[in-house]
Protein backbone atom coordinates (compact mmCIF):
# COMPACT_ATOMS: atom_id res chain seq x y z
CA UNK A 1 0.00 0.00 0.00
CA UNK A 2 1.26 3.48 -0.85
CA UNK A 3 1.34 5.76 2.17
CA UNK A 4 1.11 8.99 0.15
CA UNK A 5 0.83 9.38 -3.61
CA UNK A 6 2.86 12.05 -5.39
CA UNK A 7 0.32 14.04 -7.38
CA UNK A 8 0.17 17.33 -9.27
CA UNK A 9 -1.60 18.83 -6.24
CA UNK A 10 1.74 18.68 -4.39
CA UNK A 11 3.65 20.53 -7.12
CA UNK A 12 4.44 24.15 -6.19
CA UNK A 13 6.37 25.05 -9.35
CA UNK A 14 9.57 25.71 -7.44
CA UNK A 15 11.97 23.07 -8.81
CA UNK A 16 14.23 22.67 -5.78
CA UNK A 17 11.32 22.42 -3.37
CA UNK A 18 9.29 20.15 -5.66
CA UNK A 19 12.24 17.75 -5.93
CA UNK A 20 12.70 17.81 -2.15
CA UNK A 21 8.99 17.19 -1.60
CA UNK A 22 8.93 14.31 -4.07
CA UNK A 23 11.92 12.78 -2.26
CA UNK A 24 10.07 13.16 1.05
CA UNK A 25 7.04 11.32 -0.38
CA UNK A 26 9.30 8.57 -1.74
CA UNK A 27 11.03 8.11 1.61
CA UNK A 28 7.72 8.13 3.47
CA UNK A 29 6.48 5.42 1.11
CA UNK A 30 9.67 3.36 1.54
CA UNK A 31 9.18 3.59 5.30
CA UNK A 32 5.53 2.56 4.91
CA UNK A 33 6.47 -0.39 2.70
CA UNK A 34 8.98 -1.58 5.30
CA UNK A 35 6.26 -1.42 7.96
CA UNK A 36 3.79 -3.26 5.70
CA UNK A 37 6.33 -5.96 4.86
CA UNK A 38 7.14 -6.58 8.52
CA UNK A 39 10.76 -5.68 7.83
CA UNK A 40 12.96 -3.63 10.11
CA UNK A 41 11.59 -0.18 9.31
CA UNK A 42 14.24 1.71 11.30
CA UNK A 43 16.72 2.13 8.42
CA UNK A 44 13.96 3.60 6.24
CA UNK A 45 12.81 5.75 9.14
CA UNK A 46 16.34 7.05 9.76
CA UNK A 47 16.55 8.00 6.07
CA UNK A 48 13.18 9.78 6.29
CA UNK A 49 14.18 11.64 9.45
CA UNK A 50 17.56 12.72 8.03
CA UNK A 51 15.89 13.93 4.85
CA UNK A 52 13.20 15.80 6.81
CA UNK A 53 15.82 17.51 8.97
CA UNK A 54 17.72 18.66 5.85
CA UNK A 55 14.48 19.58 4.04
CA UNK A 56 13.28 21.77 6.89
CA UNK A 57 16.75 23.30 7.36
CA UNK A 58 16.72 24.29 3.69
CA UNK A 59 13.32 25.96 4.06
CA UNK A 60 14.43 27.66 7.30
CA UNK A 61 17.48 29.05 5.49
CA UNK A 62 15.26 30.36 2.70
CA UNK A 63 12.95 31.98 5.25
CA UNK A 64 15.89 33.69 6.95
CA UNK A 65 17.22 34.98 3.64
CA UNK A 66 13.75 36.29 2.71
CA UNK A 67 13.22 38.06 6.02
CA UNK A 68 10.77 35.74 7.74
CA UNK A 69 10.62 36.32 11.49
CA UNK A 70 12.71 33.94 13.55
CA UNK A 71 9.62 32.49 15.23
CA UNK A 72 6.77 32.03 12.77
CA UNK A 73 3.98 29.51 12.23
CA UNK A 74 5.84 27.72 9.42
CA UNK A 75 8.96 27.25 11.53
CA UNK A 76 6.85 26.18 14.50
CA UNK A 77 5.28 23.41 12.42
CA UNK A 78 8.72 22.21 11.37
CA UNK A 79 9.87 22.12 14.99
CA UNK A 80 6.78 20.22 16.13
CA UNK A 81 7.07 17.62 13.37
CA UNK A 82 10.76 17.03 14.05
CA UNK A 83 10.12 16.73 17.79
CA UNK A 84 7.45 14.10 17.20
CA UNK A 85 9.62 12.24 14.70
CA UNK A 86 12.55 12.17 17.13
CA UNK A 87 10.31 11.06 19.99
CA UNK A 88 8.91 8.21 17.88
CA UNK A 89 12.47 7.13 17.15
CA UNK A 90 13.30 7.25 20.86
CA UNK A 91 10.30 5.04 21.64
CA UNK A 92 11.37 2.57 18.96
CA UNK A 93 15.01 2.38 20.00
CA UNK A 94 14.95 2.86 23.78
CA UNK A 95 11.58 1.34 24.67
CA UNK A 96 11.28 -1.14 21.78
CA UNK A 97 7.81 0.31 21.11
CA UNK A 98 7.21 0.54 17.35
CA UNK A 99 3.57 1.64 17.53
CA UNK A 100 4.41 5.37 17.41
CA UNK A 101 6.13 4.71 14.07
CA UNK A 102 2.92 3.25 12.65
CA UNK A 103 0.90 6.18 13.95
CA UNK A 104 3.43 8.71 12.65
CA UNK A 105 3.33 7.21 9.17
CA UNK A 106 -0.40 7.97 8.94
CA UNK A 107 -0.08 11.37 10.57
CA UNK A 108 2.72 12.50 8.25
CA UNK A 109 0.72 11.37 5.21
CA UNK A 110 -2.20 13.51 6.37
CA UNK A 111 -0.13 16.49 7.48
CA UNK A 112 2.24 16.87 4.55
CA UNK A 113 -0.21 17.77 1.74
CA UNK A 114 -1.84 20.44 3.90
CA UNK A 115 1.53 21.85 4.96
CA UNK A 116 2.74 21.98 1.35
CA UNK A 117 -0.50 23.53 0.09
CA UNK A 118 -0.58 26.24 2.74
CA UNK A 119 2.78 26.89 4.38
CA UNK A 120 5.14 25.93 1.58
CA UNK A 121 3.00 27.55 -1.11
CA UNK A 122 3.10 30.78 0.94
CA UNK A 123 6.88 30.46 1.19
CA UNK A 124 7.20 30.01 -2.58
CA UNK A 125 4.92 33.01 -3.17
CA UNK A 126 6.97 35.14 -0.76
CA UNK A 127 10.21 34.02 -2.40
CA UNK A 128 8.83 35.06 -5.78
CA UNK A 129 7.56 38.41 -4.45
CA UNK A 130 10.89 39.22 -2.81
CA UNK A 131 13.00 38.02 -5.73
CA UNK A 132 14.70 35.18 -3.88
CA UNK A 133 16.71 32.72 -5.98
CA UNK A 134 17.30 29.50 -4.01
CA UNK A 135 20.10 28.46 -6.35
CA UNK A 136 22.23 31.54 -5.68
CA UNK A 137 20.78 32.42 -2.26
CA UNK A 138 20.36 36.00 -3.44
CA UNK A 139 17.28 38.04 -2.61
CA UNK A 140 16.32 41.18 -4.57
CA UNK A 141 14.68 42.67 -1.47
CA UNK A 142 16.85 43.20 1.59
CA UNK A 143 15.92 41.48 4.84
CA UNK A 144 15.15 44.90 6.38
CA UNK A 145 12.69 45.69 3.57
CA UNK A 146 11.11 42.26 3.91
CA UNK A 147 10.70 42.69 7.67
CA UNK A 148 8.36 45.62 7.07
CA UNK A 149 5.76 43.24 5.63
CA UNK A 150 4.27 40.20 7.40
CA UNK A 151 6.95 37.56 7.22
CA UNK A 152 4.94 34.33 6.95
CA UNK A 153 3.57 35.21 3.55
CA UNK A 154 0.11 34.90 5.07
CA UNK A 155 -2.32 37.25 6.74
CA UNK A 156 -1.01 36.49 10.19
CA UNK A 157 0.04 33.83 12.63
CA UNK A 158 -2.43 32.81 15.24
From TrEMBL:
Keywords: Iron, Metal-binding. InterPro entries: Haemerythrin_Fe_BS (IPR016131), Hemerythrin-like (IPR012312), Hemerythrin-like_sf (IPR035938), Hemerythrin_metal-bd (IPR012827). Residues 16-122 form the Hemerythrin-like domain. The keyword Iron applies. Gene3D superfamilies: Hemerythrin-like. It comes from the Bacteria. The keyword Metal-binding applies. NCBIfam families: hemeryth_dom. Belongs to the hemerythrin family. This is Hemerythrin domain-containing protein. It comes from Pelomonas parva.
Amino acid sequence: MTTLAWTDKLVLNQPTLDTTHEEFVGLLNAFGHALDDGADALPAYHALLAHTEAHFAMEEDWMARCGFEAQNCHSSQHAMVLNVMREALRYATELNDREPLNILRTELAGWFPQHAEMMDAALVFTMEQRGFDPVTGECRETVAEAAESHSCGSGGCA
